Amino acid sequence: MLFLKFLHLKVFSMPERAIARHEVREIEQRHTMDGPRQDATLDEEEDMVIIYNRVPKTASTSFTNIAYDLCAKNKYHVLHINTTKNNPVMSLQDQVRFVKNITSWKEMKPGFYHGHVSYLDFAKFGVKKKPIYINVIRDPIERLVSYYYFLRFGDDYRPGLRRRKQGDKKTFDECVAEGGSDCAPEKLWLQIPFFCGHSSECWNVGSRWAMDQAKYNLVNEYFLVGVTEELEDFIMLLEAALPRFFRGATELYRTAPDTATPSHWHGPICGSKSISSLLVKVSTVCKDSHCLGKCSRNGLSAV
């Protein structure tokens, strides 16, 4: 195996969890009874499901576009996970539906699912064959700077879409100097919950439990996690390990134009005074966020 979890969420009782498990098992059993012969002949690769629970502004658009470009040639399905109000945390009911759909929707297998959603442990719902999780993370400050300007300028992928902060000319340096909310130190934490999971504690900035859970999941529950700064290496490894999906991905990445970063914008240098000031304010958060990246890099280096 290659090593490469915001909003308040109530704690669900054991009976609720048991009901969720029962519902998933029920649909799995019904699915088997409806067509045992067809399922029995389904090749393992044809039954494969990959979940890319993409972190915003980590080159996720560029990588997802590769999956879309390859799906017809490599004969798999790409499906977008679109949650209510783009909330990365799903309710228990939505978690059950999500697990049901992915487990039983054989017409969409092999399938590549992508969306801004936190890690979900399928085993808690009684699913025996779990999907393959992959992801990409980025230097937390670089990611925050990128997201700051994305809210103001968008990207070349959808240039006509009006962004929430469009028209705001304030630079990231000025935002830090003024203590603005869009560049607040707490926003460096955002990558942690995507690996930590659906517990409300995952969104508690600086939580040692959340950080430990995120690291555990990254090492034990993810097939491969890359880093934005070494995206080509990530794609090369995927092509070698999962050619059913990613055959031809490396060449496609090398020849594709970059549409994730607006061509008219160049971010501030990370050695600037504003960045230094931000680091002083967020020593704990930044240290933990970088630790997650180091954990991923160590995995990549070990391959």
Class by alpha and beta content: alpha/beta
Report helical residue fraction: 40-55%
Q: Based on CA inertia axes, which overall geometry fits?
A: globular
Oligomer: single chain
* Number of H- or I-type helical stretches: 13
Give the overall pLDDT as a whole number.
Answer: 79
Mind summarizing the main beta sheet?
A: 5 strands, parallel
Which fold name is given in CATH as the topology?
Rossmann fold
Number of domains: 1
CATH superfamily: P-loop containing nucleotide triphosphate hydrolases
SSE string, helices as H and strands as E? HHEHEHEEHHHHEHHHHH
**Which CATH class applies here?**
Alpha Beta
Identify the strand order in the major beta sheet.
2-3-1-4-5
- The CATH architecture can be named as 3-Layer(aba) Sandwich
The count of DSSP E runs of length 2 or more, i.e. the number of strands, is 5
- Radius of gyration (CA) equals 20 Å
Report strand %: 5-15%
Subcellular location: Golgi apparatus membrane
Organism: Macaca mulatta
GO molecular function, one term: sulfotransferase activity
Pfam family, one: Sulfotransfer_2
Q: Which tags fit this structure?
A:
303 residues, alpha/beta, Rossmann fold
